[in-house]
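Chapter review: from sequence to fold.
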Amino acid sequence: MFNIVRFHFLQEKPILSNGIIATLVVITVLLFNLLFKFDGNITGFFRIGSEFPLSPYLNPETTFVYPNEVGHDGQQFLTIALDPTLLNPDTINALDAPNYRYRRILYPLLGYVFGLGQSPLIPWAMVLLNGTLIVLLVLVISLTLKAYNHSPPHGLWVLSIPSIWMAFILSTADLLSSFLLVLAVYFYRKGSPILTGISIAYLCLTRENLLIIWLAFVLCSIWERRWLQLLHLGWSWLPIALWSFAISRRSDLPTSSVLEQVFTYPLGGVFSKISLLFTQEIVAKTAFEWYNFFLLMLVFGATFWFCFRQLKLNKIVLICTAILTGLLLISNIKILGYYLDYLRVYMPAYFLLLLTLESHRVKTGLFAGASLSSLAFLVLHN
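The token string follows.
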């Protein structure tokens, strides 16, 4: 009996080790930024700018504000988390696109719940939630690799992805959406249609435009004749549909034409990005843009390659990658112009590469290259 328990522990040890290592790395990054970059002020993680109204639930004297900046998405998520019903008109005025931002309710809502509805605790809850999600991503990827007889330690490659640290430092919802996508693929492969449907439902409440991922699961279910899965996907889009309908009934939330701002004709944004890179002066920032943009292109290409090498195992990954590629091809320069934007939006590409379930030196090289970008961002970004 003792030998059986000991064998089971040894089997799980790599996964537990990955979780411990990931936790230590996250704590180190959190403390480094909190103490040395944000002067101990947790609101520094939300990149709050001075050019937009501050949430009425934040004290200007105790809030870390970047002067002469518009701010970043984390500021918008925090504003909603502090007033998730948006009943205060000043909260609505503090949002750049209330109707659009409010659709992405899950991350700020979790911040409100875990922060016990208390304004001083909510920023801490959101930052710690994102840190926990990084660890959970490492664990789920490690479990997936182990389930298909691959090396669980490769789950630590998650920590090399630059966009996970960007989302962590900026407190955006991209880590939650990536985790739910990885979870959906995990449950789909395990043949758990209800849990797959629940993961997709929560995914769409995190980022409503990820209904395209719902479409990927529908197409793959038809391809593989998983009719029960298709049945459960039939209701998984309802939460975001009902939530969007409820938002549309609120006359106090101004609408915005976000889709017109971020999409263009096929390859228009990609060509603009390449043209911009060639015309800019070669400095450290330009080199960093070059590096990350073309590394992302290589990640997309490698994912397709690995999918076709083992198509039977990777159908869901292939369709998700194809749809994500389609989205990339019609993205305009507003998304592709700056690494903080396109690396976060297309963060799932890195996770889909990890989920192709094949150990190969090409994959090792790509994640080694990604780790250089992560280190540069963590050390130099301010």
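Two observations follow directly from the output. The beta strands are 48-49, 65-66. The chain is about 70% helix and 0% strand.
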